Amino acid sequence: MKRKFIKPVIGTAMALLLFASCTDILDEKPRAVYTPEFFKTKDGVMGGLTAEYATMRRMWGDAYFYSNGLTGTDEATWAASGGQGNFKIMDISGNGIITPSACDAGGVWSNSFPAINTASGIIENATEVGTIDASLIAEARFFRAFYYFYLVQNFGGVPLDFGSGELKFNISPVRTSVRNTVPEVYTKAIFPDLLIAVNDLPATGRLTGALTKTAARLYLSKAYLTYAWWLKNPNNIPTYPVCDRVDPDGHDAAWYFQQAYDIATAAIADPGNFGLCDTYYDVNVATNDRNKEMVLYADRTQSSAYWNDADLGYASGGGADNFAAWMMTCNYTSMTSSKTSWAAPTKCNSVQREAEQHLGRPWTRMAPPIEVFTNTFADKVNDSRYDGTFTTVYRGNWNKAGIANAYLYNANDMQIKQGDAVLTFLDDEPATPLTYMTGAADKSAVGAAEVPGRADWVIAPSGISRVIYPGGGYKIGTYRTDNGTGLGQPNGSITRPFPVAKFSELYFIAAEAAVEGATTVAGKTAYDLINVIRGRAGKWRFNNNGNVIKLEDNSQAMKDATPATITLEYLLAERSREYFGEGVRWYDLVRTQTWGTIAHTYSICGTGIGDHTPAVVTRLIDNHHYLRPIPQTQMDALQMTAEEKAAYQNPGY
Amino acid sequence: MLLLWQSTAPLMAESSLQQTKVTGHVLDVKGDPMIGVNVLEKGTTNGVLTDADGAFALTVASSNSIIVFSFIGYESQEVVVGNQTSLNITLKEATTGLNEVVVIGYGTAKKKDVTGSVASINGATMRDVPAANITQALQGRISGVDMSQTNTKPGATMQIRIRGVRSLNASNDPLIVIDGIPFSGNISDISPSSIKSIDILKDASSTAIYGSRGSNGVIMITTNKGYVGQKAQVTYNGYAGLKSLFARYPMMSGPEFVKLRAYANNNGIAGSKTYANTLDESDDVNTDWQKLLYKTGFVTNHDLGLTGGTQQGSYSFGIGYYREEAIVPLQDFTRYMIRSSLDQQIGKRIRIGFTTNTNYSVSNGNNLGAVYTALDHSPIANIYNTDGTLKARYQQQTSGQQWVSTRKTLEALGDKYIDQTRTLGTYNSLYGELQIPGIEGLKYRLNLGLDYRQANGGNYTGVGVFSGTPSNNSVASINDAITTHWTAENLLTYDRNFAEKHHVNVVGMYSAERTLYNYSQVSVKDLPSDAFQFYNLGQATGDKTINPNYQNYQVSGLLSYMGRVMYSYDGRYMISAALRSDGSSRLAPGHKWHTYPAVSAGWNISEESFMKGISQIDQLKLRVGYGETSNQAVDPYKTLGLLNTRPYNFGSSYSQGLYVSELPNPVMGWEYSETYNIGVDFSLFKSRLTGTIEYYQMYTHDVLLQLSLPATSGVSSYWANIGKTENKGVELTLSGTILDNYNGWTWEAGINIYANRNKLVELASGSKKDEGNYWFVDHPIDCIYDFKKIGIWQEGEQYLTDYEPGGNAGMIKVKYTGTYDTNGKPTRAIADADKQILSMEPDFLGGFNTRVGYKGIDLSIVGTFKKGGLVNSTIYGANGYLNNLNTRSGNNVKVDYWTPDNTGAKYPRPNGLGGDNPKYGSTLGYFDASYLKIRTISLGYDFSNMGFVKNAGISRMRFYATVQNPFVFFSPYKKESGMDPETNSYGNENAAVPLPGTLKRLLTIGTNTPTTRNYLIGLELTF
Fold it and tell me: At B413, phi and psi to the nearest 5?
């Protein structure tokens, strides 16, 4: 009986033993992850293409990439909470220095190279797969050029060979690197790829937001323009790695300015589905996202946290989060009104965090200097762009926060109702200087002033400080459709697409090329082109900060104010009016070598609540700052001698 | 095995004129007959076994013959026959000493014959520390075995490191073997009550037989079993107790915070920020969030066991229940356990048996973030409405609306919150053993291990729960992790004595094992009803996500051949040699196999004739060993490379992005270590003092490492065999009987002390440092790379703004390593180049235990200690965001901060240079890690000898009262914070901005469930 029981046990054991002896046990078959083999299939190639788009999200919308393009220019300085993330350092105003480990350009470096390698992989594998359309390969070529373009603008010359040869897909673990020169990067990588992209890309993208011929033309013209400036080098800014300012293809700066002009005007003449919106307001209002002016953007979605690759409820600020708009948003939520008369106040926060384009989440990291309001946007009447760029009026939303009061008491003990202005940044300096409230007497809690007859707290342009300032994040601000009747989710990653390139820029590119000597065609002089932009800026359909319909056409007044001769300075100021706070200013000033002069000084009040005394700050922009340092992570990962590493790093860092 | 060779020794009746027949009984100390005791005429092979009544009959050569009575686990006795014909022998259970039997892997050996480094502890001793799992029970008990706390939640286990860390990315966890079968489950699945003994194999000459799996040491667990002929015995062990807060986190009170905010806002530093009270904050409020959170915790454990034997077999059966409630609401852990084992001899040659251990546990609230919330929230927040009810939310500076998190609000959540993991683990082993006819001492054994573990998790957070946003979506998720594991081992053993003095033991093995791990996770948004919790995700109206990054499938297999020969001569000279070859599925084709040797030798010096005269020395043994082990511990598929996913949306159309993130490595092979070990075991003064001293060196080569590539290679990383590490150490274990029944008093004491010096010898191709991973050649693997705080800058100090452009008095002063000009002025500002490598390695560590007995009363104390090294408290450091010193959001740690009137302070000036945190704020978290901790004090009373107990048929009854974590001494961290100086988190956990995942290994003190001081009462009962 017992033996009968034993036999099956031993039999089973032996069977297991035989099974075990099979060397299958040492074979591997992954079932939950992709291995690089998959990248050689058609689906793998298509996945690679999507990754090129997805990489944009790690840069456009990222606050540090954003700061890298703004802080230290005439558009932005650090704000009260801006020690974090190097905002003070990037300001180059004596609060720390830019170093390889403290510089916000790091993301450009770390994101671009893998994207370039992936693009090379797509180009190679797609050819091998054989059934992949040229227009898809053209997308990969566009992106390879695109990421190289951002690298070369930030760092100077960068490697073309990652380990498997120039512009070849690298799959070897290489720990050394050799930088190419700036002209090599442009003439070997950027221009050839973009020329093919212009040729092979469709007029209309294959998917919402996918690449088009217009996008390729925009970047080709911009690359030509940037390279033309590099060849011209008017202010003798050094390049690195050191090389002669000679074009390997034998052209000169004038030839490239002309190419930039020609390509940009060709794109304007053959716009496909793109074009200018009717008003500036329409370009940026969230309800009109993905409009015809948006040539390229890093898309986002509110409908899925997974596909958005970012938290929709409470984002920590990193990865693919779109949180750039929080930087130039001050902590407006501190401001107070009273439920009862100020004689015996019951204070409450009358403007609270709301998932709404004017408001959103405040990080108080970056602030616009006073000159933005007094110089750049001097015209606040005809030009709709001031109103379409800033949140200058903070309106009460206490009902949405659960405070049921129909009226609150605000300035001068006057009543305001939900939606009324609680705090206003005045357009112009009042004749009588404002008396700001301070300390315990500060009813507003943000150090604002009371003006007789006004129910809102007010702050004059000269009172703009590092702690309380007009919201610069409006254009790229939060917008959600799931707020219901409440404040919604103001702390989530912003779910709007972040603009990368707009159709309007073609006008600026062509105009800049013309200013620098390109031969123009009739009707497309620099003056003509700029006036298209300025004319559109004069058209109003909505007063954003007044929260009221405003049908006005000040186009003619705008055009009349345009100087007959467009200078570079004027063009750059116009660019700032058009693209303020979009994270592009540093590139414009560096390209034109005007950074050190245009951003030399600025004024702003201090970091304390109630501090409304402007101070003039001088920046210490040196020629070496025109190139960002090679990030320390790269330097650390390189297996090279100390001398080789020193030679690899940009001078001055 | 030892038992078997003895029991099968042939009976040989030698003829002699003076033959004497001796009969008698062998009993244990309780007077119960002992079955199967080996009764042997010394110096011969003449022997018998006792029968079911403990009786024996043996005819010996002469009246000068000596009879040896031996039984595994008991002290042997030798009796000169003389003119006795009847002998009644009582055998005492072996407690400590060199006669103890230890489990050495594929066999057992008397401790005196062991040539490798094996440390043992029996279950009863281990249970001096009542604990949920063996890691807590073993902390500080064994030299060279460091248990570090990584979590303080109920049911949590500790990280085990045997003789330091070797691998950089691979696991450094030891192998656990239960009853001979490698264990694939979680340590928390093993109830300490079921354990008879634990043996830890520390050096390569011992672990080599486990090959690659043993490279980080092996913990051999033997569970309680009956023995042949044992009378049925029932045991009960139970305790229950309360858990109270050991120490609150040292946060500021309302008035202290008010003072800090006032100072921070008015400190006169240009550019400093002001943070006014919000409307919910008021200077006259003092809200103690911790007091509002904590409750009294509770712990209880009950184990009931039955063991017994039959004439040819034995059995055991047990059930257990353990429950622990944290002092944080909604956090608890419950475990139910059932186990059984059977051994049965069938006929003369076959023996079979099985062990099965099944448990089911439920843990709740593991992801509850209530502790951080309690520390982070404003102490001047008025959280009550005018009617005295709690507000749902309140406004905090810069961080905005906060959910009011208290014991009351948490307990009121009801269906609105659940975070539960239900785990079923069943670990089963079977064996069959056959004595091969014809060849004496040759045996075949098949071991089969079949394990299954399923952890099923679910969580639900209702609308607005824990969120400052009342409309925050409800979310739920479920996850399921399944591990199946089988092992098959085929063993041939040959064990025989030749010519009396030669003992040979040969083992040959061929084994295979395979582990499958599968993890799935689904999460959803917007459940229409709280009642659904996570039980019907299909009802969710919002986004349903199956994130591909949260699904996993891994299969790995291992094939092994092993051979070992042990030879001993006359109990004096022992040698052991082993060779093992392992093939792993995880490594690249062509590099899957590795073969490694191990040899060790021992010399029982005390057995030599020249030692006979030295009566003080009972035992003296020298051991030396050399061995190799290897490590395959990379995750499966790492040789193949990886495509990472990058999801994207084209408007409303979704698309998955893919890019190469890890390169394949077709030559990735084994990481392996060479270990040299030398040890001395001694027993002095009639075993009143016993001890072991060991020294070892360990060199690990071809370390498996995920290497970050420069961005310019286009790929972020790859896995490779790169680097070398080294460990050297000494270990000392002493135990002594200070009083041995002196007027009824006994006093025993033991101490172990050890030091390990770990060093990274080589990184990838000549690189001296990997700053991102905090790896530096010639430094320990566990170190911090940061500035070194040397004080606080004072008013008027020279060159302040040269060192620190824009700096001010009161800021943290860090070490400068640059040059100076002729005036002594630094030639540059403080920069990254000034960062220092700060070792976290302690100088030495260890534990001690002592036990005093008088009549039935016993008092025992167990403690641990550590000298030197660094501990990183993220409470104080910048990562925790609790020591901002600018009152930018909620509370601040209570620290002595610099002001012009308090210039001797340790902490910097509030609101000085820095962003959200003071500049160099991370340096504030580093403390000297030294401490001495009394882990438990137990006072027990044994009623066993009392009449009423005996009359009730109870053979043992002991009551005890225990206090856990009563005292901590010599701890700079405790001195400053009042807190427990032991770590409670991995580096990437429990801090506002934790360290990156790559620095997980650097354990921290973070915002985990606080350490408790526990008061228990317990009962041990045997009948």
Answer: -65, -35
